[in-house]
Design a protein that fits this description.
Layout (H helix, E strand, L loop, with lengths): L5 H28 L2 E2 L7 E2 L3 H7 L2 H34 L4 H9 L6 H11 L6 H8 L11 H30 L2 H9 L4 H29 L3 H6 L11 H11 L3 H31 L4
Antiparallel strand pairs: 1-2
Length: about 290
């Protein structure tokens, strides 16, 4: 096995130095800040675990945590199922494949802010074209501004629409990478479509599925734009997620310590999910290749 020498370390040094300056050092500063009482125009005062105890006893924090866990699970698994179905359709073959592929990937080319504003106007009860069309066919009105269930549901739909191309590309690429000879052998052996899917397609794309889940869970935990631009956490803070709670603690209530503590709680929770899927990825995907 080739040794990793000094020249290789030197080539990696600029990238590692950038990560240290941009990610590691600010993270350590925020971690220290989470143990202090700090606000605008005041020097940080060390208070130990008081910030963590304060958010632990804050009912708005727990509401934001529950909202976050519910919404990200709807987003991640709803997105995974849709991406899986669309990728399967493309693999089987569709007419005008390039045009349809461009249409599927289009949401990733649109700014989040622009996309959310468009959805917001389309579903406006007074002037929204989509809202009027839904009423015309007898569907109920989506009261996303006053009903927290409707608000979080619409946030989930918008987020799935925005980030579906990411998961789709990963799943679709994995499906294309499965050797066709395996399917041909399965047909010769008399396997049904379900058996081919279960014993060839699914095991072949499982590592890609876990990779998609890891990245989407991490990204979904940072959910902010969709909620902030749609409901801003209202009405009465019922649609807050952890990122909105963090923002309000830091910049609305000027409590930097509580905001920093919330940030590290988010890191720990998302890290637990990532560790679970990384372990599954290693056991089900890469361990057999070792």
């Amino acid at each position: 096995m080739r040794k990793f020498g000094l020249s290789q370390f030197a080539m990696l040094a600029p990238a590692q130095g950038m990560l240290l300056l941009v990610i590691a050092l600010p993270s350590l500063y925020v971690f220290w800040l989470s143990f202090t009482e700090s606000s605008y125009g005041t020097s940080p005062v060390f208070v130990g675990w008081e910030n963590y105890a304060a958010i632990w006893n804050d009912r708005y924090f727990w509401r934001a945590l529950v909202n976050t866990l519910v919404v990200i699970n709807i987003i991640v698994y709803g997105e995974l199922v849709l991406a899986f179905v669309i990728a399967l359709v493309f693999v089987k073959g569709v007419p005008f494949r390039r045009v349809l592929l461009a249409m599927v990937l289009t949401p990733y080319a649109i700014s989040e802010v622009v996309a959310i504003v468009i959805w917001k106007f389309m579903l406006d009860p007074n002037v929204g074209s989509l809202a009027k069309a839904m009423l015309a066919v007898g569907l109920p009105e989506i009261s996303w501004a006053t009903n927290p269930v409707h608000g979080l549901g619409l946030v989930s739909v918008i987020s799935i629409w925005l980030h579906l191309p990411f998961t789709f590309i990963i799943i679709y690429s994995a499906m294309l990478a499965v050797p066709k000879e395996l399917y041909e052998s399965a047909i010769v052996d008399g396997a049904t479509r379900w058996q081919s899917f279960r014993f060839i397609t699914l095991p072949g794309i499982l590592p890609a599925v876990f990779v998609a889940l890891i990245f989407r869970y991490i990204f979904a935990f940072r959910l902010f734009s969709e909620v902030w631009l749609l409901t801003a956490g209202g009405p009465a803070r019922t649609t807050e997620v952890l990122s909105i709670y963090l923002y309000k603690q830091s910049f609305t209530y000027a409590s930097f310590g509580k905001g920093a503590a919330t940030g590290w709680v988010m890191v720990l929770v998302s890290g637990v999910f990532a560790a679970i899927y990384l372990r599954l990825l290693y056991r089900r995907g890469f361990q057999r290749d070792a």
